[in-house]
Design a protein that fits this description.
five-stranded antiparallel beta sheet, 18 strands, about 500 residues, globular, alpha/beta, seven-stranded mixed beta sheet
């Protein structure tokens, strides 16, 4: 298998699973909310992992705390819990993952989407947050949250990491309490998150550990202690976060834990078995790769090599095979501006789009695993594919749904193809994918794929509008297998697959 979805998750190392199994077999871990020997062992392992992960991100425990959560999305929602009752203003970057965009629904004051880095720079320089005078006065009396991704999960473009420091010195901060939330989930897989300068670090940083190690499926919210007090104002409390609760008619008093921030924010029993695995993951990662800087250089080199080769692929008539969606300032030879991720689509020699769904199916048949679709990045998809908000609404009305196989509408792709490299990638992955891509150059399969993709898309539209119109073989409305048109289609598909098997990448 050629695995090219490191932007989704990196595979876990076999040695990590072996070490983890040995640890689990050799120890008894109890619920940490107790004082038994097994429970104390769990507490020790959890706290060790907490401090080791802070060091991994070069975060001084004197200035930061790490709260274990289910994943990066849960970390983002935890920040909302602290701000929600303040009717906060929310600003977010258009490159944000859907989970960041979702916070706008909870911002009672108002929200703003920054459509470019330049808009953010202007905002920080001028301090002009809201143009409406009434809303501007409201903002002056409320909290604010500015959130953005360290790296686009769509195409790997890396955004400026100095915005939190600049915001603290700007006129924006002078007008009120504006906190910063960095979504580092995509970034940490192939880059060193450096929080050594607490004065310039984000107030809150959300991430998932499987992006780095492949396992365990645990996330974290790294809290800058100077800003942590705002999270303690959340109304909800769970088991383990309070020292006393009065539960009687007319009296709802509680005493939240007053120690470290994580003690008051980790609701219920932590995922202590998964957190314990982080200790193994750290050791295996250091043993295999040495450092995140090594991973970054290695993966970046491979991505640059693939990008250069993909950029040069053309049909005999000179048309480019690949349309690559890259930020204007991004450079695959500069790891500060670009991650080892490539987002693209493919055209045939007549300039027609080859459906992303069929591209993925054919890649799978050739032993290549990658990602296609909208990849939970609505802003990036809209910008790079040239879709207006009206077009997106119309596409939805016409049947487009996430993952339903509709690849093209009104002459535009509905999503992208994404490949990404990581610590385990090697040059053979580049070679295998390039071999596969070259099969699309001036091949007759291109036209067949387009017609098949359009046929599938039409059925998907009908299914989205009326599920009863998209029935399986057992349905009375199903087309008979004796239908000559169905036999012809099957014969055509068999010929396509027979041709592609010649190019199968092992």
């Amino acid at each position: 298998t050629t695995y090219l979805d490191h932007a989704g998750t990196t595979p876990y190392a076999k040695s990590l699973m072996k070490d983890y199994c040995r640890m689990m077999q050799a120890n008894l871990f109890g619920n940490p909310h107790s004082e038994s020997p097994s429970s104390l062992l769990s507490t020790e392992v959890v706290e060790t992992a907490r401090h080791r992960m802070l060091r991994f991100f070069r975060a001084d425990p004197a200035h930061f705390d790490l709260v274990f959560v289910a994943n990066a999305t849960a970390a983002i929602k935890l920040v909302d819990e602290g701000l929600r009752d303040h009717g906060f203003w929310y600003g977010y970057h258009a490159d944000a993952h859907t989970s960041l965009v979702g916070l706008r629904e909870l911002a009672a004051s108002s929200s703003r989407c920054f459509f470019s880095d330049e808009e953010v720079d202007d905002w920080l320089a001028q301090g002009a947050l809201i143009h409406d005078e009434e809303k501007s006065r409201a903002y002056m009396t409320t909290m604010g949250l500015f959130a953005y991704p360290a790296q686009s999960n769509m195409n790997g473009r890396r955004l400026p990491l100095d915005w939190p420091a600049r915001l603290r010195k700007s006129r924006v901060r002078a007008k009120g309490s504006v906190y910063t939330l960095l979504d580092a989930a995509a970034y940490v897989g192939t880059a060193q998150l450096d929080l050594s300068d607490h004065a310039s670090a984000p107030d809150f940083t959300a991430l998932s550990f499987y992006k780095i190690f492949g396992f365990p499926d645990v996330g974290a919210l790294i809290v800058r202690k100077e800003a942590g007090h705002v999270l303690l104002q959340r109304p909800y409390f769970g088991g383990g976060t309070v020292d006393m609760v009065v539960n009687s008619t007319g009296d709802t008093w509680k005493a939240t834990k007053q120690g470290a921030f994580h003690e008051a924010l980790e609701d219920g029993t932590p995922a202590f078995h998964g957190i314990a695995a982080l200790n193994c993951a750290l050791e295996v990662h250091a043993r295999l790769y040495g450092s995140m800087d090594n991973v970054s250089r290695h993966a970046g080199f491979l991505a640059a090599a693939l990008y250069d080769q993909m950029s040069s692929l053309t049909h005999a008539n000179g048309r480019r095979l690949c349309t690559i969606y890259k930020g204007n300032a991004a450079d695959y030879h500069d790891r500060r501006t670009q991650a080892p991720t490539i987002a693209f689509n493919v055209r045939d020699n007549q300039g027609q789009w080859i459906g992303k769904s069929y591209f993925e199916q054919l890649a799978t048949r050739n032993g290549i695993q990658l990602r296609t679709g909208g990849v939970c990045n609505p802003g990036g998809i809209a910008f790079y594919l040239g879709m207006s908000s009206e077009e997106m609404r119309e596409n939805y009305a016409e049947g487009l749904r996430c993952g339903n196989g509709i690849d093209e509408m009104n002459g535009k792709p509905t999503g992208i193809i994404r490949v990404g490299f990581g610590a385990m990638s090697n040059s053979k992955d580049v070679e295998a994918f390039m071999t596969f891509l070259r099969t699309f150059i001036d091949q007759e399969t291109s036209r067949s794929l387009i017609s098949k993709s359009q046929d599938f898309s039409e059925k998907a539209v009908l299914s989205a509008k009326d599920p009863a119109t998209f029935m399986g073989p057992s349905s009375e409305k199903a087309v008979s297998t004796d239908d000559p048109s169905m036999t012809k289609r099957k014969t055509t598909l068999d010929k396509i697959l027979h041709t592609l098997r010649r190019f199968t990448c092992r």
